[in-house]
Amino acid sequence: MRNDAGQSPSSAANLMHMDEIWKAVPGHEGSYEVSSLGHVKSLYRIYESRPGVRYTRQERILRQSITNHYPTVVLKKSLHVHRLVAKAFLPNPENKPQVNHINGNKSDNRAENLEWVTAKENVAHAAKVLGKDQAGERNGNSVLTENDVLDIRSIIAFGAKLADIKRAYGLKWAHVSLINNRRCWAHI
């Protein structure tokens, strides 16, 4: 069977990976490499588990699991693949702390789909490009509803102590204060 270019499927698959570039995983040089397409592999090596007992580890592509919606591999600890790819392939002259998926797909860890960003830029990208408004109840981490916030504000207006509200709603004192001062949940 031949494809449109007149190649067999196996040779077409080989051509697809010709653009894949491998680099050492920072901090794990000689043991692991990450590719520009988001694959991670363990390199061939010989090691001793104890004196006189030698083992060989064959080179292999590591299986990725999903942790907090991101593909992850375990080297000595669990690491997000997009951060490994960014550290190996993307310069970060401004020392920005976060890695953004340009197309919004957290499983697409190709180097060309990643960029270094600040937390503010990451949130703005999610709101603008992905249409994710994370205010109030739409924020996946929210433990309050808009009605809870309105109740908290009215209870405070009637003279309730912040400590009592904190206990009743299971919040931290600072969070109750921020709600009261409209520094969070400002949209209601």
Q: Any overview of this molecule?
A:
It is a single chain. The protein folds into two domains: 9-128, Homing Intron 3 (I-Ppo) Encoded Endonuclease, Chain A (Alpha-Beta Complex), CATH 3.90.75.20; 137-180. The protein has 188 residues and is of the alpha+beta class. Mean pLDDT is 84; it is low at 1-16. The protein is built from six helices and eleven strands. Strands 1-2-3-6 form a four-stranded antiparallel beta sheet, covered by helices on one side.
List keywords for this structure.
single chain, 188 residues, alpha+beta, Homing Intron 3 (I-Ppo) Encoded Endonuclease, Chain A, four-stranded antiparallel β-sheet, three-stranded antiparallel β-sheet, 11 strands, disordered N terminus
CATH class of the largest domain: Alpha Beta
The general outline is elongated
What average pLDDT do the residues reach? 84
Oligomer: single chain
Low-confidence segments, given as residue ranges, are: 1-16
Count helical runs.
Answer: 6
The count of β-strands is 11
- The whole-angstrom Rg is 24 Å
Number of self-contained structural domains: 2
Report the order of strands and helices: HEEEEEEEEEHEEHHHH
Strand order of the largest sheet: 1-2-3-6
CATH architecture of the largest domain: Alpha-Beta Complex
Structural class of the helix and strand makeup? alpha+beta
